[in-house]
Structure formats: structure tokens, C-alpha cells
């Protein structure tokens, strides 16, 4: 299951996997795919360095990459405390009301710092890049469009190709003009930040828009048959994220959340600004309902303010496994994620399904 791009990047299979877990990224690379570690949850550069060291040690010499977030909207010269001061009291009060309605306990004193989405801030992303370029990464991906020109140039000087996610052909052409090497066409059904165009429509349009740049298809892919469809649409591989969340190597930190994902259907997600301030597909919960459908709710704040606003609340919900509020970014493919499997087993299923799809198409062609 190789393409020109997967061969160029040293992967046996054209399966590119985004994940926040270094053990998952390493296992995917070992299985012949291309593991990409998400950096946004790392506030401290030394923590990222530690996990990149772990990834490298367990990837068995196979290629891997890093995904950073460098949003176009930024607050110049502001510290995290100064940015937090921009959050209206009305929003803080609303978060307290939600937590009180579900009797969410405070965090223990030793955990009060909470999960902070500082990775949305460019200053943090740049410190992550300093760490990344000290490791033999085979790909740098940017989740919110192309990184700044100096970052693209720095990657290219080190021989590292740069990928960027796009939700429309217009965005994809902008990426091409910015010197991006690979465009990830991410459809509406994907987990995390998405546009409004479904993968079946988006992928061939992006392929045409940026030809001859290689395109990866993201969104709604969790089987080998769907991967074959992506290649049939002109993509040179698939970018998968959600399917790894219920693998045995993933560390969600909550058995209750794993159970919710395994029980969810394809209609149990919602595109919401509740987590980061930008539209992202999440597991539908009482938390997302509170921000999207409840009467009297305030509008979510722009990035990075919303992420900082909800950081402590997210940590409390996860730490105490408050099931009505407990959720995660995940795509509509969650309906097919109904058992815990190893990363290797997922890759094996993908390759078998791919072979079945090709056999059916070949039979039709004959």
C-alpha cells in the first residue's frame, strides 16, 4: 500500500497517523506507517523533548513527524497571564455554573496547574520547534494552515518537508504559495478543527488545485476500503487521527472516556467552538451542549482565549471522570471504533480492507 509520497518519506504504507501519544506514533511507524506526534498539549519544551526521545527510541529507526499549531491570530508580545486577563468575567462565571451543576470537584492541590492549552500560542510553538529540529523528524505538519515563512525555510534547510491542513481548495492554494510541500485535505467529518466541506468532495478539488503537490486525505477514514477511496480520489495517502484513540497504546487517562468512545455512533459528534474557540469536531457531551444549544450561553471566545478559559475545567472533568461532561476531539468515524485493538492490529485491518477494495474494483474492471 505504497505511493510515491510514502516511498519518498520512507514509509511502507501510505498511512499517516496524527496522535497526541508518543507510544501510538512509535507503534504506527514500527507497523510501517508514519507516526506524527501532536505537540499542542506540551506546555514545556523539556516534556516534548522527553517524549520525542521516547518516540525515537521505540520507532525502530522508522520515520516519524511532529505536528505543531501556529494560529494566524496571535497576541503580540503578551504573556500568558496578560492573555488570561482578557477573558471576560461573564465567561468565567459561566464555566463555574456548568461545573457546579454537575458537582465537579476541585483538583487536588498538587494538580492545580491543570492542562493548559499554551501550545496554541506562537511563542510556545516556536520553543517546540527548537526541540523538534534537534531530533531526526521526517515531517513537520501545521494544523492551522502554513507556519510562518521563516519556519518553512528553517525546515527546508534541514531537509524536512512541511505539511499543512486545508479545509478548502482556496486554503490549499494559499498553502502551495507559502511553499508547503504536502497538503492535508481535511474534510468536515474529521475530528478536531475542520472546515465545512466533506472529504469526498474536498479531496479531488484540492488535488486539482495544488497539482503537482501531493495531497493526503483526512476525515472519515478508518477502514482500508475508505483508504482505497481516498487514493482513488487522487490522494497519495490518508491522514488518520481518531482511529488511534481506542488503541491499546493510547493513554486517554480515563477508562470512562474510552467506554464512551467505544459506545458512540457516527452521529454522536458535533462541530463546536467549546474547546479552543475555533470550530472543531468533538464527542457530543453536556459540555458541548452547554456551549452550543443552552439558553443564555455566552459565545465561545476566540483562540487562544477559549482554550485558556476552559483549561482548568477540562482537567477537573477528566481527573474526576464526570461522564456527562467527559469528551474529546473525535471524528464521525467513531461509530466504527467499537473495540480496543493494538496499533499493529489497526494497520493490519487497514491493509486487508485495502486489498479487499482493490479486488472488488479489479473484478468490476474485468
UniProtKB/TrEMBL annotation:
Domain of life: Bacteria
Organism (species): Streptomyces qinglanensis
Keywords of the record: Dioxygenase, Flavoprotein, FMN, Oxidoreductase
Protein name, UniProt field: NAD(P)H-dependent flavin oxidoreductase YrpB, nitropropane dioxygenase family
Entry's Gene Ontology molecular function annotations: dioxygenase activity; nitronate monooxygenase activity
A Pfam family it matches: NMO
